[in-house]
Each structure stands twice: as C-alpha cells, then as structure tokens.
Inverse folding.
C-alpha cells in the first residue's frame, strides 16, 4: 500500500514522520561510518607526529635529517616523502623553522647577543647562523630584534 493513498488516514502524519526518521537515521549511519574510516590517520601523518615530537626534543643538538630518520627507523627519502605529503615541506625546512622560531623567541624575550643565541641553539659558527636567519626571515637577527622590540 502506498503512503500517498493514505493521506486521509489519521495515522498518515505519524507514518510519514517515522519513515522520514528512518531515512535520516540511515543517512547518519552511513555518514558516521565513512567519517570514522577517514578519521584514521595515514602513515604519513603518524610519521609526521613522531618527527615533530622528536624535533621538539632534539632541534638544538641535531640539525641533520639523517638523525631524525634513523631515530624513527626510516630512510631520509621516506621521511621527506611523508612530511611533504602531510605538510608540503621537507625535513630540513621543518628543522630550520623550529630553530628560527626559537631564535626569534630568544631575540624577543632575552637580552642575549645574537652570538650567544647562536651558541645556545647549537651553532658554533655565528656567521652561518646569521646567514641562515637572514635567508629564512628576510632580515638579520639584529634587525628582527629592533623591529619587534620597539
């Protein structure tokens, strides 16, 4: 019996509402099932999380991608591939960004010289650190301090 023929029936509105609820429930069930399947992190995302945790602990002492790859038991090429799939950037880019972030924090909140900050961040060659900072930020460390402290 079709529902359209039962329009005059007193139960028609209730039947229609229940039918609609069943359809909505089925749609929600399918959506949540698909959403649960897509919420599972990919291998690249898992590797990225491992890398960022390790980077946070080791960026001062270890600057080379090979260290991070070996600690996660991956090749440098695969670590790079995972990070590029997840963020679009290489391992070296992430290492440099973390170092520069810490350098900016130290420049802003401390009165240490740029040379002292370079040493604190694990750079024995102050000139190399200065070139790296300028290349990544577009300004020298001293200029960054002057601009942001005023």
């Amino acid at each position: 019996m079709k529902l359209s023929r039962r329009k005059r029936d007193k139960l028609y509105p209730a039947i229609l509402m229940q039918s609609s609820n069943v359809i909505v429930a089925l749609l929600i069930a399918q959506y949540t099932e698909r959403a649960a399947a897509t919420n599972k992190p990919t291998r690249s995302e898992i590797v990225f999380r491992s890398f960022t945790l390790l980077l946070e602990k080791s960026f001062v002492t270890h600057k080379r991608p090979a260290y991070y790859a070996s600690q996660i038991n991956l090749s440098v090429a695969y670590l790079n591939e995972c990070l590029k799939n997840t963020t679009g950037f290489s391992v070296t880019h992430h290492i440099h960004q973390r170092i520069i972030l810490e350098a900016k924090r130290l420049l802003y909140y401390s009165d240490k010289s740029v040379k002292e900050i370079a040493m604190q961040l694990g750079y024995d060659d102050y000139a190399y650190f200065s070139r790296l900072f300028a290349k990544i930020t577009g300004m020298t460390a001293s200029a960054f301090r002057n601009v942001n402290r005023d």
The radius of gyration is 28 Å. The chain is about 70% helix and 0% strand. The mean pLDDT is 89.
